[in-house]
């Protein structure tokens, strides 16, 4: 049975490769990336063999803990990182639990992440080659550690299968777990700069971690090498116990997942709340805008874009705080607005086949384009204004406010115009509704990459006047250029937005069935 | 490839028939004049030819839907092979065929969702691919196997469908209320469609297709996973719609249902129409199911799976 499960995994992998050559490209790129990471890791681990035991221990425990943590967190973040052997699919087969567990665990090694983790962990054997006993322990512990990784991620996956039959949990967890991720960069940079004496702090952290399930297994060989067999034995027990507890958790949640149907009914609600449909006029444009607005707040794929746009300026701000200049905050509004308006260039792709409703009802292209742009603009423009005001207040740079507002408005309006054309032209393989916002789907090829790049360049050209005027305003410090920039941003932006909607509308009218066909094909 | 931009000028006479469920919404006499005026539209006379071939070219006897030489291939494989079909106005038309017969592809092409490789479609005399907007006004479509905007509540979704059709808010509100009541969805009106069961999803999609009171309803597998009570309610709605002059085209796997419900039927297999006409003509004495199997083939005469018998 275990062999059957392993073969199933391989067959699924092979068939997915056969389906699209881009899958193969993805696998090769992933494999090369993995090999590069592996090479660096092993080289580093071998180099550590020459270092002091204390240093080697600190590095290995910290890195190892991060690896286990990664295996725990990533499956939740990208629901369905590897759901090829989704436990829910075994519901109807009476596979004995023990064999199912063993098969699923071993199948975790078949895949780039599993294989790389195993090989890199075995690299620790090389670190301890000067200490024969530690070397032996390292081999055992490496396997133990990788098993822990796989069992931990499986336990989390099947536990979340239980939870995620509730859609609301899935939506919320996807968005919430995403926040720390984008804040990771400033946190790390804050930590690393905050403590110049981090070299003193890290061994302490590693020491603490080495007594937890995350670090214990990595610290056993080091303790042996350092001549503390008692500690080593204790930590080995911690590691074994962790694995046992995780396996037990996995077993009970898997047992539950196997008898819980995937669908559970939510709370029934009677009607009467039309939400955003009451805020916009009852026209075609208004309807499209209302629908899009609801999606910005209710669909995790949009919500994540919205949060990113709102938070990214802060991400830039934290490092700036340490360098003492908050000049970057001046441009926070422009950056946030750019991210938001460009994200609707994939709007129709995000609709997926629900776009059928638009094609079937014969909504005019101009109305479709205008409605989507309106919803995005209603969110983007106030956000941009707020950030500009904050930036000006923090830097007391009120002199530059008109210029920056001009740049922001120019970006918003021109960007919406450009997005309106692009989304009527291209469809991407965007995450499907209900999927994790981070799930990348196969088939995103270089043409799409080119379109994105072309979009950036195109937008840069469209707002070039505002960019130049802003630069001049900052360079000369004369307010008049700022006011000119504001006027140009508003006027030129409005013209470009109108042009984008008309042009995009025409494209849409001509190509709506083709867009739908592309969406159906990519489904 | 760039045709069918909804040409507004040539059939301006058609634009004032938006949401009338009455079949007399388009005066029959006006149409030939219109197609005469559409000087730059080469297919319109062809349409007239096909239409006048129908017995009694009076307005209400014009077929609701005419397919001529409709063809579509995917990756070199022919999915629909030059189909001709006439759906009389006021008929309850069933489209039956095995899986992969080309039913959905044909209906998608007939409703302006999928551009045909060749061939033409007319809805009440309007060429679907040359005057998309006018043609789509006349049609209500329930596609199969596509997503809905499922982060909207049921009520919001149907409202959205109405507003997209350019209807005014008051009418939409009224009709949404009526539709939700008729389809037993009042208690779930505020629930997000993503949390609906398969049957409820089907019903809310049907409501979205009905909101603008189309003259022709095209329903792809409308009864799939719908419970028997709701199915009976839906059948009643459709029957009364047909008796008031509307036209319904349904595709289905369930022969029994089609035989009971429809007055016309077409059997499609392998991208071809094998038989078409009134239900009695097509089944010619046998039950529709037997006739279907006879036409399509594929039944096994062997004993099969001897080990599966429990005795």
UniProtKB/TrEMBL annotation, chain A:
Coiled coil: none annotated. The chain crosses the membrane at residues 21-47, 59-79, 100-121, 133-152, 172-192, 232-250, 302-322, 328-350, 371-394, 400-426, 446-474, 480-503. It comes from Arthrobacter terrae. The keyword Membrane applies. The keyword Membrane applies. This is Transporter. Keywords: Membrane, Transmembrane, Transmembrane helix.
């Amino acid at each position: 049975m275990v062999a059957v499960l392993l073969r199933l995994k391989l067959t699924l992998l092979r068939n997915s490769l056969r389906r699209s050559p881009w899958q193969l490209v993805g696998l090769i790129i992933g494999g090369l990336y993995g090999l590069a990471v592996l090479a660096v890791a092993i080289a580093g681990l071998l180099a550590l063999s020459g270092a002091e035991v204390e240093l080697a221990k600190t590095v290995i425990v910290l890195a190892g803990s991060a690896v286990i943590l990664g295996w725990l967190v990533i499956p939740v973040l990208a629901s369905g990182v590897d759901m090829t052997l989704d436990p829910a699919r075994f519901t109807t087969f009476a596979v004995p639990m023990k064999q199912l567990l063993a098969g699923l665990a071993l199948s975790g090694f078949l895949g780039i992440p599993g294989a790389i983790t195993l090989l890199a962990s075995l690299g620790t054997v090389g670190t301890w080659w000067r200490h024969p006993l530690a070397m032996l322990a390292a081999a055992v512990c490496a396997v133990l550690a990788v098993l822990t990784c796989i069992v931990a991620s499986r336990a989390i996956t099947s536990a979340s299968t239980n939870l995620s039959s509730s859609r609301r949990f899935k939506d919320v967890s996807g968005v919430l777990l995403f926040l720390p991720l984008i804040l990771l960069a400033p946190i790390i940079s804050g930590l690393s700069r905050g403590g110049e004496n981090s070299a003193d702090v890290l061994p302490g952290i590693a020491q603490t971690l080495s007594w937890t399930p995350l670090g214990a297994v990595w610290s056993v060989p080091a303790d042996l090498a350092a001549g503390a067999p008692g500690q080593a034995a204790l930590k080995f027990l911690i590691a074994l116990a962790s694995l046992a507890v995780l396996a037990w958790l996995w077993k009970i949640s898997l047992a539950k997942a196997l008898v819980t149907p995937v669908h559970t009914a939510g709370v029934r609600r009677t009607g009467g709340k039309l939400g955003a449909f009451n805020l916009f006029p009852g026209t075609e444009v208004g309807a499209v805008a209302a629908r899009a607005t609801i999606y910005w707040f209710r669909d995790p794929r949009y919500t994540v874009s919205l949060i990113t746009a709102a938070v990214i300026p802060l991400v830039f701000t934290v490092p700036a705080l340490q360098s003492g200049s908050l000049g970057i905050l001046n441009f926070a509004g422009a950056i946030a607005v750019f991210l938001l308006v460009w994200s609707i260039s994939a709007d129709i792709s995000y609709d997926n086949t629900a776009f059928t409703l638009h094609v079937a009802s014969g909504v005019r292209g101009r109305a479709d384009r205008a409605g989507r742009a309106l919803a995005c603009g209603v969110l983007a423009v106030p956000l941009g204004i707020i950030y500009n005001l904050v930036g000006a207040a923090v830097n007391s740079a009120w002199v530059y406010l008109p210029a920056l507002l001009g740049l922001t408005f120019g970006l918003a309006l021109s960007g919406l115009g450009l997005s309106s054309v692009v989304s009527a032209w291209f469809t991407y393989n965007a995450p499907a509704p209900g999927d994790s916002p981070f799930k990348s789907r196969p088939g995103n090829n270089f043409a799409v990459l080119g379109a994105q790049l072309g979009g950036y360049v195109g937008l840069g050209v469209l707002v070039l006047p505002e960019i130049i005027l802003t630069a001049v305003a900052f360079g000369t410090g004369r307010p008049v250029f700022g006011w000119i920039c504001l006027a140009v941003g508003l006027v030129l932006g409005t013209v470009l937005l109108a042009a984008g909607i008309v042009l995009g509308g025409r494209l849409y009218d001509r190509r709506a069935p083709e867009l739908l066909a592309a969406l159906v094909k990519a489904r | 490839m760039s045709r069918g931009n909804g040409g507004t000028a040539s059939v301006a006479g058609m634009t004032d028939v938006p949401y009338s469920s009455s079949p007399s919404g388009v005066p029959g006499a006006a149409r030939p004049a219109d197609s005469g005026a559409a000087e730059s539209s080469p297919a319109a006379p062809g349409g007239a030819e096909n239409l006048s071939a129908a017995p009694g070219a009076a307005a209400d006897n014009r077929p609701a839907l005419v397919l001529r030489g409709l063809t579509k291939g995917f990756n070199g494989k022919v999915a629909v092979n030059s189909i001709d079909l006439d759906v009389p106005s006021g008929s309850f038309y069933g489209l039956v065929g095995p899986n992969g017969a080309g039913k959905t592809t044909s209906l998608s092409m007939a409703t302006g969702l999928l551009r045909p490789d060749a061939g033409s479609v007319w809805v009440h005399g309007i060429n679907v691919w040359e005057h998309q907007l006018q043609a789509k006004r006349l049609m209500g479509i329930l596609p199969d196997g596509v997503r809905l905007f499922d982060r909207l509540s049921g009520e919001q979704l149907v409202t959205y469908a109405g507003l997209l059709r350019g209807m005014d808010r008051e009418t939409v509100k009224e009709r949404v209320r009526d539709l939700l009541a008729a389809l037993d969805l009042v208690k779930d009106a505020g629930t997000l469609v993503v949390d609906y069961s398969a049957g409820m999803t089907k019903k809310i999609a049907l409501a979205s297709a009905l909101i603008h009171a189309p003259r022709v309803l095209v329903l792809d597998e409308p009864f799939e996973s719908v419970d028997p009570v709701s199915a009976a309610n839906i059948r009643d709605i459709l029957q009364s719609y047909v008796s008031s002059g509307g036209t319904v085209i349904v595709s289905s796997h369930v022969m029994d249902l089609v035989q009971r419900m429809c007055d016309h039927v077409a059997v499609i297999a392998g991208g071809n129409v094998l038989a078409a006409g009134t239900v009695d003509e097509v089944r010619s004495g046998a039950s529709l199911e037997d006739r279907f199997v006879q036409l399509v083939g594929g039944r096994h005469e062997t004993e099969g799976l001897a080990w599966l018998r429990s005795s």
